[in-house]
């Protein structure tokens, strides 16, 4: 099998799996279901292309992360810093996850990711952040704290969606940028200014442009 053919089949499997995730949810979608939808002879064919469902999911998450960062780069706004871009990415993802189907997929999928697999979603990202942010923590701490933030975010969303709290998603999201800045080691005296400046930028983005970045579309 040629490399190009292998990549084409991987892309078809990813598209097929996203459809199944949208219809059945991440946890209820099995490799058997994916193999059947792809019309493979058996489940073993799946493992020619992916090591596991989590490996496949990590590639879907990585693809989306790249699209979000590519979109941010395309804005070409003046007088912004890497920290503004980082918070903007955070706000865009939070906006995507206002949609229940997208949120359930993201939280269920990321909950299963290990630290190494999550870091592979964003190659060289930690090096970039540590180099460009005025952070007070080491690169290793930064990596662990971002991993912890994603897990915290998932736990919070699951508690909200399972009606374990009266706090709404929108109410919780107001605090998350502050939590994020704390975890990446940015001085608290800078938080308010950075977040307000980034919110001003975020509100300039048409809603239709953010909808293009959704995992799933109606």
From TrEMBL:
| Keyword field contains Repressor | no
Which is a Pfam family this sequence falls into?
Answer: TetR_N
Gene3D superfamilies for the chain: Tetracycline Repressor, domain 2 (1.10.357.10)
InterPro entries cross-referenced by the UniProt entry:
Homeodomain-like_sf (IPR009057), HTH-type_Tx_Regulator (IPR050624), HTH_TetR (IPR001647)
Which UniProt keywords are listed?
DNA-binding
Domain (HTH tetR-type) ranges: 13-56
Name the SUPFAM superfamilies for this protein. Homeodomain-like (SSF46689)
Could you cite one Gene Ontology molecular function of this protein? DNA binding
* Name of the molecule in the record: TetR/AcrR family transcriptional regulator
């Amino acid at each position: 099998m040629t490399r190009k053919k292998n990549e084409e089949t991987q892309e078809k499997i990813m598209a097929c799996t996203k459809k199944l995730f949208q219809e059945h949810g991440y946890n209820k979608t099995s490799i058997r279901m994916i193999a059947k939808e792809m019309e493979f002879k058996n489940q073993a064919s799946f493992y020619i292309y992916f090591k596991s469902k989590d490996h496949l999911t990590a590639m879907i998450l990585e693809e989306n992360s790249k699209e979000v960062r590519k979109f941010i780069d395309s804005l070409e706004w003046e007088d912004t810093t890497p920290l503004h871009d980082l918070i903007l990415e955070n706000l865009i993802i939070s906006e995507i996850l206002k949609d229940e189907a997208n949120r359930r997929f993201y939280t269920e999928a990321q909950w299963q990711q290990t630290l190494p697999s999550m870091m592979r979603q964003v190659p060289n990202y930690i090096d970039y952040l540590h180099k460009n942010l005025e952070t007070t923590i080491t690169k290793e701490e930064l990596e662990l704290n971002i991993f912890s933030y994603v897990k915290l975010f998932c736990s919070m969303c699951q508690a909200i969606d399972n009606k374990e709290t009266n706090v709404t998603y929108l109410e919780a999201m107001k605090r998350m940028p502050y939590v994020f800045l704390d975890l990446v080691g940015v001085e608290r005296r800078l938080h308010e200014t950075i977040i307000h400046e980034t919110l001003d930028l975020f509100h300039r983005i048409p809603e239709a442009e953010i909808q293009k970045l959704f995992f799933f579309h109606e």
